[in-house]
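Sequence and structure are no longer studied apart. To make this concrete, we show below a single chain and its fold as C-alpha coordinates.
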Amino acid sequence: MNSDELKDTVKVVRNWLVEARDNVLRKIDSRLKVDTKSGRSDLVTNIDRANEQFFVSKIRQFDPEAKILGEEGFGDQVDNIDGRIWIVDPIDGTMNFVKQRNHFAMMISLYIDGQGVLGFIMDVINNELLYGGPEYGVYLNSTKIDEVKNTNLSDGLIGLSGPLVINDNFHMQDIAQTSLGMRIYGSAGIDMISVFKGELIGYISYLKPWDFGAGKIFAETLGLKMTTIDGQQLGVLSSKPVLLATENAHRDILTIVKK
Protein backbone atom coordinates (compact mmCIF):
# COMPACT_ATOMS: atom_id res chain seq x y z
CA MET A 1 0.00 0.00 0.00
CA ASN A 2 1.34 3.43 -0.86
CA SER A 3 0.92 6.42 1.46
CA ASP A 4 -2.19 7.73 -0.30
CA GLU A 5 -3.89 4.33 -0.06
CA LEU A 6 -3.00 4.11 3.63
CA LYS A 7 -4.40 7.56 4.36
CA ASP A 8 -7.58 6.81 2.43
CA THR A 9 -8.05 3.48 4.22
CA VAL A 10 -7.49 5.03 7.65
CA LYS A 11 -10.02 7.76 6.90
CA VAL A 12 -12.62 5.28 5.67
CA VAL A 13 -12.25 2.85 8.58
CA ARG A 14 -12.30 5.66 11.15
CA ASN A 15 -15.62 6.77 9.66
CA TRP A 16 -16.97 3.22 9.94
CA LEU A 17 -16.00 3.11 13.61
CA VAL A 18 -17.58 6.49 14.34
CA GLU A 19 -20.83 5.35 12.72
CA ALA A 20 -20.72 1.99 14.49
CA ARG A 21 -20.09 3.70 17.83
CA ASP A 22 -23.09 5.95 17.29
CA ASN A 23 -25.21 2.90 16.45
CA VAL A 24 -24.09 1.08 19.61
CA LEU A 25 -24.66 4.08 21.89
CA ARG A 26 -28.17 4.56 20.53
CA LYS A 27 -29.02 0.96 21.41
CA ILE A 28 -26.98 0.52 24.58
CA ASP A 29 -29.90 1.03 26.95
CA SER A 30 -32.30 -1.12 24.97
CA ARG A 31 -33.23 -4.63 25.98
CA LEU A 32 -30.50 -6.90 24.64
CA LYS A 33 -30.99 -10.34 23.15
CA VAL A 34 -28.21 -12.34 24.79
CA ASP A 35 -27.13 -15.85 23.78
CA THR A 36 -24.30 -18.08 24.97
CA LYS A 37 -21.67 -19.62 22.72
CA SER A 38 -19.09 -21.97 24.29
CA GLY A 39 -20.34 -21.44 27.86
CA ARG A 40 -22.28 -19.16 30.19
CA SER A 41 -19.48 -16.57 30.31
CA ASP A 42 -19.04 -16.54 26.51
CA LEU A 43 -21.84 -14.26 25.35
CA VAL A 44 -23.07 -12.78 22.10
CA THR A 45 -25.78 -10.17 21.70
CA ASN A 46 -27.94 -8.88 18.89
CA ILE A 47 -25.69 -5.79 18.86
CA ASP A 48 -22.52 -7.90 18.39
CA ARG A 49 -24.17 -9.53 15.38
CA ALA A 50 -25.55 -6.30 13.93
CA ASN A 51 -22.21 -4.56 14.37
CA GLU A 52 -20.32 -7.33 12.59
CA GLN A 53 -22.82 -7.34 9.74
CA PHE A 54 -22.32 -3.57 9.45
CA PHE A 55 -18.52 -3.89 9.25
CA VAL A 56 -18.67 -6.82 6.83
CA SER A 57 -20.99 -4.86 4.53
CA LYS A 58 -18.67 -1.84 4.59
CA ILE A 59 -15.57 -3.95 3.90
CA ARG A 60 -17.28 -5.80 1.02
CA GLN A 61 -18.04 -2.45 -0.63
CA PHE A 62 -14.60 -0.95 0.01
CA ASP A 63 -12.40 -4.01 -0.64
CA PRO A 64 -14.50 -6.61 -2.48
CA GLU A 65 -11.63 -9.01 -3.22
CA ALA A 66 -10.52 -9.28 0.40
CA LYS A 67 -11.34 -12.06 2.85
CA ILE A 68 -13.03 -11.23 6.15
CA LEU A 69 -12.54 -13.09 9.42
CA GLY A 70 -15.21 -12.07 11.93
CA GLU A 71 -15.83 -13.36 15.44
CA GLU A 72 -19.54 -13.91 14.90
CA GLY A 73 -19.18 -15.74 11.59
CA PHE A 74 -20.60 -13.24 9.11
CA GLY A 75 -17.37 -13.09 7.12
CA ASP A 76 -15.53 -15.89 5.31
CA GLN A 77 -14.02 -19.21 6.24
CA VAL A 78 -10.38 -18.12 6.41
CA ASP A 79 -7.82 -20.94 6.62
CA ASN A 80 -4.70 -19.30 5.18
CA ILE A 81 -2.99 -15.91 5.33
CA ASP A 82 -2.67 -15.32 1.58
CA GLY A 83 -3.92 -12.03 0.19
CA ARG A 84 -5.84 -9.31 1.98
CA ILE A 85 -7.57 -10.30 5.21
CA TRP A 86 -9.71 -8.04 7.36
CA ILE A 87 -10.20 -9.25 10.94
CA VAL A 88 -13.20 -7.93 12.87
CA ASP A 89 -14.24 -8.03 16.52
CA PRO A 90 -17.58 -6.15 16.65
CA ILE A 91 -17.84 -6.00 20.46
CA ASP A 92 -14.78 -7.04 22.45
CA GLY A 93 -15.70 -7.57 26.09
CA THR A 94 -19.30 -8.63 25.55
CA MET A 95 -19.79 -9.63 29.20
CA ASN A 96 -18.76 -6.11 30.22
CA PHE A 97 -21.11 -4.69 27.59
CA VAL A 98 -24.02 -6.78 28.87
CA LYS A 99 -23.44 -6.36 32.61
CA GLN A 100 -21.77 -2.94 32.87
CA ARG A 101 -22.46 -1.11 29.61
CA ASN A 102 -18.80 -0.08 29.85
CA HIS A 103 -15.24 -1.36 29.33
CA PHE A 104 -15.73 -2.80 25.83
CA ALA A 105 -14.14 -2.12 22.47
CA MET A 106 -14.47 -2.58 18.72
CA MET A 107 -11.45 -3.85 16.77
CA ILE A 108 -10.53 -4.09 13.10
CA SER A 109 -7.25 -5.04 11.47
CA LEU A 110 -5.94 -5.48 7.93
CA TYR A 111 -3.26 -8.01 6.98
CA ILE A 112 -1.76 -8.58 3.55
CA ASP A 113 -0.03 -11.93 3.02
CA GLY A 114 0.33 -12.31 6.77
CA GLN A 115 1.88 -8.87 7.34
CA GLY A 116 0.05 -6.38 9.53
CA VAL A 117 -0.84 -3.20 7.65
CA LEU A 118 -3.37 -1.31 9.77
CA GLY A 119 -5.06 -1.81 13.12
CA PHE A 120 -7.92 -0.05 14.90
CA ILE A 121 -9.11 -0.37 18.51
CA MET A 122 -11.93 1.85 19.75
CA ASP A 123 -12.82 2.21 23.42
CA VAL A 124 -16.50 2.88 22.79
CA ILE A 125 -17.54 4.62 26.02
CA ASN A 126 -14.40 6.76 26.39
CA ASN A 127 -14.35 7.56 22.66
CA GLU A 128 -10.65 6.70 22.36
CA LEU A 129 -9.43 5.33 19.05
CA LEU A 130 -6.00 3.73 18.67
CA TYR A 131 -5.08 3.27 15.02
CA GLY A 132 -2.22 2.94 12.56
CA GLY A 133 0.48 0.57 11.45
CA PRO A 134 4.15 0.21 10.52
CA GLU A 135 4.02 2.50 7.48
CA TYR A 136 1.59 4.99 8.99
CA GLY A 137 2.57 5.33 12.64
CA VAL A 138 0.34 4.72 15.65
CA TYR A 139 -2.07 7.37 16.92
CA LEU A 140 -4.39 7.71 19.88
CA ASN A 141 -7.11 9.96 18.49
CA SER A 142 -4.95 12.75 16.99
CA THR A 143 -1.82 12.20 19.13
CA LYS A 144 1.01 10.14 17.71
CA ILE A 145 2.57 7.50 19.96
CA ASP A 146 6.27 7.28 19.15
CA GLU A 147 7.37 4.85 21.84
CA VAL A 148 6.30 3.01 24.97
CA LYS A 149 8.70 3.08 27.92
CA ASN A 150 10.58 -0.21 28.22
CA THR A 151 9.58 -0.97 31.81
CA ASN A 152 10.47 -4.13 33.78
CA LEU A 153 7.78 -6.41 35.15
CA SER A 154 8.60 -5.41 38.74
CA ASP A 155 8.10 -1.72 37.95
CA GLY A 156 4.65 -1.78 36.40
CA LEU A 157 1.06 -2.96 36.48
CA ILE A 158 0.04 -5.90 34.31
CA GLY A 159 -3.26 -6.89 32.76
CA LEU A 160 -4.11 -10.56 33.26
CA SER A 161 -6.87 -13.02 32.47
CA GLY A 162 -8.88 -13.92 35.57
CA PRO A 163 -9.15 -17.66 34.78
CA LEU A 164 -5.41 -17.93 34.10
CA VAL A 165 -4.66 -16.35 37.48
CA ILE A 166 -7.24 -18.40 39.39
CA ASN A 167 -5.91 -21.66 37.92
CA ASP A 168 -2.29 -20.46 38.17
CA ASN A 169 -1.66 -21.44 34.57
CA PHE A 170 1.91 -20.71 33.44
CA HIS A 171 2.80 -19.52 36.99
CA MET A 172 0.45 -16.60 36.51
CA GLN A 173 0.22 -15.91 40.24
CA ASP A 174 4.01 -15.48 40.43
CA ILE A 175 3.83 -13.09 37.49
CA ALA A 176 1.15 -11.06 39.27
CA GLN A 177 3.11 -10.99 42.52
CA THR A 178 6.33 -9.94 40.79
CA SER A 179 4.59 -6.99 39.16
CA LEU A 180 3.44 -3.93 41.08
CA GLY A 181 -0.10 -5.25 40.75
CA MET A 182 -2.47 -6.94 38.33
CA ARG A 183 -5.52 -5.50 36.63
CA ILE A 184 -8.36 -7.53 35.11
CA TYR A 185 -10.43 -5.47 32.67
CA GLY A 186 -12.25 -8.26 30.84
CA SER A 187 -11.59 -6.87 27.35
CA ALA A 188 -8.49 -7.51 25.28
CA GLY A 189 -9.01 -4.22 23.46
CA ILE A 190 -9.22 -2.17 26.65
CA ASP A 191 -6.17 -3.93 28.10
CA MET A 192 -4.14 -3.39 24.95
CA ILE A 193 -5.02 0.30 24.72
CA SER A 194 -3.71 0.58 28.30
CA VAL A 195 -0.46 -1.16 27.32
CA PHE A 196 0.14 1.13 24.35
CA LYS A 197 -0.67 4.20 26.46
CA GLY A 198 1.97 3.04 28.98
CA GLU A 199 -0.52 2.43 31.79
CA LEU A 200 0.21 -1.31 31.83
CA ILE A 201 3.54 -3.00 31.05
CA GLY A 202 1.86 -6.05 29.58
CA TYR A 203 -1.21 -8.19 29.05
CA ILE A 204 -1.67 -11.98 29.12
CA SER A 205 -4.78 -13.90 28.07
CA TYR A 206 -6.05 -16.67 25.84
CA LEU A 207 -6.79 -14.85 22.58
CA LYS A 208 -8.16 -15.53 19.12
CA PRO A 209 -7.26 -13.63 15.92
CA TRP A 210 -9.98 -11.01 16.34
CA ASP A 211 -8.75 -10.39 19.90
CA PHE A 212 -5.11 -9.73 19.02
CA GLY A 213 -5.07 -8.79 15.30
CA ALA A 214 -4.89 -5.04 15.80
CA GLY A 215 -2.72 -5.25 18.92
CA LYS A 216 -0.12 -7.36 17.12
CA ILE A 217 0.27 -4.62 14.51
CA PHE A 218 0.70 -1.92 17.16
CA ALA A 219 3.19 -4.02 19.13
CA GLU A 220 5.36 -4.62 16.08
CA THR A 221 5.22 -0.93 15.16
CA LEU A 222 6.06 0.39 18.63
CA GLY A 223 8.80 -2.09 19.57
CA LEU A 224 6.83 -4.17 22.07
CA LYS A 225 6.68 -7.95 21.93
CA MET A 226 3.59 -10.04 21.29
CA THR A 227 4.17 -13.79 21.27
CA THR A 228 2.65 -16.99 22.54
CA ILE A 229 2.95 -17.40 26.30
CA ASP A 230 6.16 -19.42 25.86
CA GLY A 231 7.79 -16.84 23.58
CA GLN A 232 7.07 -18.43 20.20
CA GLN A 233 5.99 -16.53 17.11
CA LEU A 234 2.28 -15.75 17.07
CA GLY A 235 0.58 -16.67 13.83
CA VAL A 236 -2.17 -14.43 12.50
CA LEU A 237 -4.75 -17.26 12.65
CA SER A 238 -3.60 -18.68 16.01
CA SER A 239 -5.82 -19.23 19.04
CA LYS A 240 -3.43 -19.46 21.99
CA PRO A 241 -2.44 -17.89 25.31
CA VAL A 242 -0.80 -14.63 24.24
CA LEU A 243 1.82 -12.47 25.91
CA LEU A 244 2.04 -8.78 25.04
CA ALA A 245 4.62 -6.75 26.94
CA THR A 246 7.50 -4.34 26.80
CA GLU A 247 10.76 -6.06 25.88
CA ASN A 248 12.02 -6.00 29.46
CA ALA A 249 8.76 -7.21 30.96
CA HIS A 250 8.48 -9.87 28.25
CA ARG A 251 11.92 -11.19 29.24
CA ASP A 252 10.98 -11.15 32.92
CA ILE A 253 7.70 -12.96 32.31
CA LEU A 254 9.26 -15.69 30.16
CA THR A 255 11.76 -16.38 32.95
CA ILE A 256 8.84 -17.09 35.27
CA VAL A 257 6.78 -19.03 32.71
CA LYS A 258 9.70 -21.35 31.90
CA LYS A 259 10.93 -22.02 35.42
User: Anything to note?
Assistant: The longest helix spans residues 3-27. DSSP finds eight helices and 14 strands in the chain.
